[in-house]
Amino acid sequence: MTQVTERGTSLPTAPRAGARRRSPATAACVAGGAVAAGLGLGFLAVLVIVLWISSPYPDSGPGGALHLAAGLWLLAHGTELVRYETLSGVPAPVGLIPLLLVALPVLLMRRAARLGSAEEEDEEVLPAGAVFSAVLCGYLAVGALATVYAAGGPMPADPISAAWHVPLVAALAALGGAWGARGRPLGPLPPWLPGGVRRAVVRPRYALALRAGVGGALVLLGGGALLVGASLAWHGAEVQTSFLSLTGVWSGRFAVLLLALALMPNATVWGAAYALGPGFALGADATATPLGFAGQPGLPRFPLLAALPAEGPGTPLTWAVAGVPVVAGLAVGWFAVRRAREVSYGETALTAALGAVVCGLVMTGLAVASAGPLGSRRLSDFGPVWWATGAAACAWTLLLAVPVAVAVHAWRNRPARGLAALDALSALDVDEVVDDRWHDSGVREVRWAAMRRAAGALVPEIGAEPEPPAVAVVASAAAPVAAPVATPLARVARVARAPRAVTVVSGRGLDLTPILSAAKPVDLPVDPVPPVDPVPPAAPLAPPVVGARVLARRKPPV
């Protein structure tokens, strides 16, 4: 009873209360996943509705526009759509995914997972697995409803394709968001993996190989983007004609421009595949490679397709694109070298080879994502062949990365220059030489003058006391002191010894007598102010100095 009535005393919490406190956080994560899917659908729905309203001759009502928006949202996840209204009556699949459109659901799902994993002061943080599962459940629930709704539109989604594409994209994005919210940890692998695999993955060579492979893939993509831009500029007239002939209203041209921008990442991957050699397919019977453009492509009218190379055999201008994979191979070899000196040449070569494999895998995945059908028969195959693109990327980078990595490793681990000269200098008696030159070169006087100027009145000026009136100065008639021989140590110390005149001063009474202490202790008198008798000076231990060597520094005071 006392525990209940007294203030500030709390009863122990039951174990079930912790599970109850987790339920609001779990519900919030589920709602976050559903909101992420809803935002993506809403953005595409608003865009399609605006284009439908601005169109001078729409072919369907608002319901058809909303069904089309749901189909585009599923297409952004990689789902294949089916177009039933064709001239031949055969259903035509549409599987060429604009890669820029994929960024919309990925970013929204990643943000939802990050918000679910964020730490709150008043609420308990859910484990990463619980956040991932809750956000994914909310997202897939909205995805299932969108698939059912898109089935009544002009371009419904293939149920089998939607059943694995939507969960795959959502799961990868949620994993990235939860990992980023935890600070991107690189902790130990799960214990259910074999011990040999866990020990092998933590080796530095795999991290370097991953960095080198991704760097090579980025170089290939940059080269592909450069090729696409140069081809658009080269065929500027054809591109402009194709863009203006599709439609005459601003809303239609704006839609074509948006579609071209969404397909620019696909064109970049196609350009990289073209530079690697396998090229890309433009239908079932046509292929564009640097060696030539063969076949009869059944191409629709579109601005990006107007920038393709001319049909026929290749030219030196098309062969020059081989410089892109060459630069990619050099990049893989450069990034595969460790800075540690204890790494062997075999380890460096193995890291470069693994980087080439990673580059090939990355380009394989990008080729799969950027290709797809635009219809049936002649339009059933568009884009690069995934296995040929990946093999070409691995072969190019492997051929160049291994020798470049070994050469860079040898250059970074070369012996330092000048070791023989340093060994010769270290064999000299440095202390003795420096001491001799310190006393004879005037450096000591210069340093003392600098200390006096810095200290001001704290250090008395040398030579401020009046000199004795009678001083006989005799200048030596000896030859001036010769300059010291230049040695390597003298050049290192940067001490210059100039010839100086020697002045001998005779008759100068320099008292070098040390202060002598009394042999017996003296008893202090009781009187606080006793009379003190003058103490006679002690006899000098050494005779007065007859001559001294004086370094002339300034004129004596008058």
* Anisotropy-based shape: globular
Based on helices, strands and strand pairing, what is the structural class? mainly alpha
Strand order of the largest sheet: 6-5-4-3-7
- Total DSSP E strands: 10
Radius of gyration over all CA atoms, rounded: 43 Å
Instruction: Give the overall average pLDDT.
Output: 77
Distance from first to last alpha carbon: 104 Å
Uncertain spans, ≥5 residues at pLDDT below 50?
1-21, 429-438, 469-512, 514-519
SSE order, as H and E?
A: HHHEEHHHHHHHHEEEEHHHEHHHHEHEE
Major beta-sheet overview:
5 strands, antiparallel
Describe the structure.
The structure is a single chain. The chain is mainly alpha-helical. It is built from 19 helices and 10 strands. A hairpin with an 8-residue loop joins β1 and β2.
